[in-house]
Amino acid sequence: MTDRLPAALEQIRADFLDLGIKDRLQLLLEFSNELPELPAQYADHPDLFERVEECQSPVFIFVEVDEARVVHLFAMAPKEAPTTRGFASILVQGLANLTVDEVLDVPDDFPNTIGLTEAVSPLRIRGMTALLGRTKRQIREKIAA
User: Fold this and answer.
1) Are 75 and 35 in contact (CB under 8 A)?
2) What φ, ψ does residue 61 adopt, rounded to 5°?
3) DSSP SS3 for 62
4) Fewer beta carbons below 10 Å: N end or C end of the chain?
5) Which helix (DSSP H) or strand (DSSP E) does residue 64 occupy?
6) Number of folded domains in the chain?
7) Which residues contact 59 (CB under 8 A, 6 or more apart)?
8) pLDDT tens-digit profile of 18-45?
9) Domain containing 58: what range?
């Protein structure tokens, strides 16, 4: 599938692949309930967030790269959109505390490798792929600045 995934993403993938299709949807729902709240400094600044247009439901992301080149991904998605919210949560949790290089090395096809292609529509998988792609683009823009 992929050469080297960061440990958190590898564990998330393994957790999904260990389940049947119906249970994978339940796990995705659990992830949607675990999307971290925004820190106070960002909660009042929706203008910092970029909408991921490829997602069927409104999801917004913001990437911060700290002085140690550690990536922090923040996301907002409505509770009424559990699939989109679950995808955002997978990435927020799976990319937490990774370096710029580790995030940029995550294979672009990661969303296709976690066993959800049989459970959700290709359009939804495309949305998750776009979430990852926009995260990487924001990182590249921040480190180039």
Assistant:
1) yes
2) -130, 155
3) strand
4) C
5) strand 60-65
6) 1
7) 51, 52, 75, 76, 77, 81, 84, 85, 87, 88, 127, 131
8) 999 999 999 999 999 999 999 998 988 8
9) 7-37+48-144
51-85 pLDDT per residue, tens: 999 988 899 999 999 999 999 999 999 999 999 99
| Residue 33 pLDDT | 97
Residues 91-127 pLDDT 10s: 999 999 999 999 999 999 999 999 999 889 898 999 9
CATH of residue 101's domain is 3.90.1010.10
DSSP annotation of 63 reads E
Could you tell me how many helices (H) and strands (E) the chain has, helices first?
6, 3
pTM for the full model?
A: 0.93
What gap in Å lies between CA 109 and CA 126, rounded to an integer? 10
pLDDT given at position 1: 40
Beta bridge partners of 70: 99
CA neighbor of 108 nearest in space, from 32, 12, 2, 15: 2
